[in-house]
Design a protein that fits this description.
193 residues, eight-stranded mixed β-sheet, 1 helix, 23 strands, 51% strand, globular
């Protein structure tokens, strides 16, 4: 259990780091099972939470606030994880599903600002994104390397975005729906908060 903490200042100091800068994470896990990560405030870090290596399973990430960081959540080599009721504010990237994942759920979160909501540079597989609010996130979805398999996205609210971007695809919510059949029940509207 990681609960009720204020964590900040895990940034890359070297402007030309040899190592990957996302390794400057406030919390990083390897071979971790049955983790509850809740009610934490993380800010001014390169990455907020990074489930990096080994076999990470059965994590719950809820009720956290992550702000002013490059990446809020990144998951690799992880299965059966739920991210919900988190507030992600002014992070370049809110959620990064990466390699070796399965059964990942990202739901009932609020993403405010930033460059991208769900982002990766290669195809990711087996994750769901639903019931989230994306406000002024330039690209709610941004996958440079294209989509993987078994991804679900629906019942989200989008407002103040520039475009959805998957490889060469660049379009709005209507184009996203018709091209990929995602977010059929999602809305584009001002959440008024």
């Amino acid at each position: 259990v990681v609960r009720n903490n204020i964590i900040h200042g895990f940034n890359v100091l070297d402007p030309n780091p040899v190592n990957n800068p996302q390794n400057s994470a406030a919390i990083m896990t390897y071979f971790t099972n049955n983790l509850l990560f809740e009610n934490n405030l993380i800010y001014d870090s390169f990455a907020g939470f990074f489930s990096k290596g080994g076999s990470n399973t059965n994590h719950t990430m809820r009720l956290n606030v992550i702000r002013n960081s490059a990446k809020a959540f990144r998951v690799s080599f992880t299965s059966n994880v739920r991210f919900y009721q988190n507030i992600i504010e002014n992070c370049d990237l809110a959620f990064q599903p990466a390699e070796g994942i399965s059964d990942i759920g990202f739901f009932n979160n609020t993403i405010i600002g930033g460059t991208s909501g769900v982002d990766n540079w290669f195809p990711s597989n087996d994750f769901s994104v639903y019931n989230n609010i994306f406000v002024n996130s330039q690209k709610p979805y941004f996958f440079e390397g294209g989509l993987g398999t078994n991804m679900l996205s629906d019942r989200n609210l989008f407002f103040g975005y520039t475009r959805f971007e998957i490889g060469a695809f660049r379009d709005n919510l209507l184009g996203w729906r018709s091209t990929y059949a995602f977010d059929q029940n999602s809305l584009e509207a001002d959440p008024m908060f």
